[in-house]
Amino acid sequence: MALVLYNTLTRRKEPFSPLNPPYVGMYVCGPTVYGDPHLGHARAAVVFDVLYRYLTFQGYKVRYVRNITDVGHLEGDADEGEDKILKKARLEKIEPIEVAQRYTALYHKAMDALNVRRPSIEPTATGHIPQQIAMVQRILERGYAYVVNGSVYLDVELYRQDFPYGVLSGRQVEELIAGSRELEGQAEKRHPWDFALWKRAEPTHLMQWDSPWGRGYPGWHIECSAMSTHYLGVPFDIHGGGLDLIFPHHEAEIAQAHACYGEAAHHQARFWIHNNLVTIDGQKMSKSLGNFITIEEVFSGNHPKLSRGYPPMALRFLILQAHYRSTLDFSEEALRAAYRAYLRLMNAYRRLLQVRPHSYATYSIGAWKEKVFAALDDDLNTAAALALFFEQTDDILRLYRNEIYLSPEDLDSLKRIWQEVLFDILGLTPIHQVEWERWERVVNLLIHLRRQARSERNFALADFLRDELQRLGVRLLDFPEETLWELAE
Ligand code: ZN
């Protein structure tokens, strides 16, 4: 078994091995906490949760750091516009820290529902101002930055004389020049593509700190360089985030790390891993297009694009069914199909737990286990791994009905892999035994009444019971000698 991951930095799949085994340092850019967590947040969190879980499963000691951005993320990506959190605070007439704490709490609530494990460390930008100032200072001392009017900028031209700039995104500075607009507040930069490490604050600015350059606040990119290297050293193993962060955010992080630590920083992280984005009915998700969907809206169904609410596992399953480097197109139809697929696996799992082994096996799982792990090892192909589980559901029904037999060893192995892969690694939540039992009692009663209706040739009543059960999410499977049931969508 060897895990291979696609490295955005080298643009190829590479075998993963930690710099300092058995320890793995992983940093993922977390949310800017100024609004309700949405589908984009769900996808990034689930993708890196699976990586975290898989590395842990393989025996690595993973230190997983995912930050909370609570200052410095401006509306424009190029040091322009209002701080997103300050704007929200102004609009709602509350303190910036209230904004940050409210949306951090909502983020945690949504992620807990999706069964996303909390990271080992969840640092906030405002909690690490001294580390950020120290890093800016060191970059200044090494000559890669300059101070203007109390703001500090990284000098991309000077940096470029010693290190390549644009390695992650593949962008050339020439392209950046062509693409840079004349923006307010850009005049003090030597070059429009320089970026802020520290910004001077107006006296009325609500979030500001003392620094060697006067009162101000950190640039958005410096927090991630400062916090990742503070907790993980430099270079560390894995840096993750959404595809939209590659430029300018991650490109800037790499430049800051080199400017601060020199060649030894080695692009700050060994592997740069990016998840693709969520589209809605084929379109980019955005507030202006009216197709912006929050996680809570998926759960409640309170959105024009949804006819009803869906349980968290439907959304988690939908995310797992796409490869993390492909776009994920969200629609109610896709969500419903994902929920159906999730239930299909849970029905099969419940049956599997009731299968009895046989000394005369007529069925063998063969190399199935190896195939499942080969899929996960191949750049975390969760979609391919799930497909292998679907292939087995019909056989599990046959095992359950004693049409085929499995040896004790194969049965143990099968149960273990279902458990480990679906629940421990992919992070699905099983349907609780108590819930199954409650269904069991009610459904068995109705199956009994239906059988009675049939024996009295009251087929209208028998069909009515079957259809009503189907409407309530229970499908009946009729066999000559028995009727089975399963949860359905
Ligand atoms: Zn970041």
Structure description:
This protein has three domains: 257 residues, HUPs (Rossmann fold), CATH 3.40.50; 147 residues, no CATH class; 55 residues, no CATH class. α1 packs across α10 and α2 crosses α3. The strands form five sheets. Strands 4-3-9-10 form a four-stranded parallel sheet, with helices on both faces. The chain has a four-stranded antiparallel sheet with strand order 5-6-7-8. By secondary structure, it is of the alpha/beta class. It is elongated. The model has no long low-confidence stretch (mean pLDDT 94). It has 16 helices and 15 strands. The protein binds zinc ion (ZN). Zinc ion binds next to loops. The site of zinc ion has 3 residues, from loops.
CATH H-tier superfamily of the largest domain: HUPs
SSE class? alpha/beta
Beta content: 5-15%
Low-confidence stretches: none
Assembly form of the protein: single chain
Rounded to an integer, what's the Rg over CA atoms?
27 Å
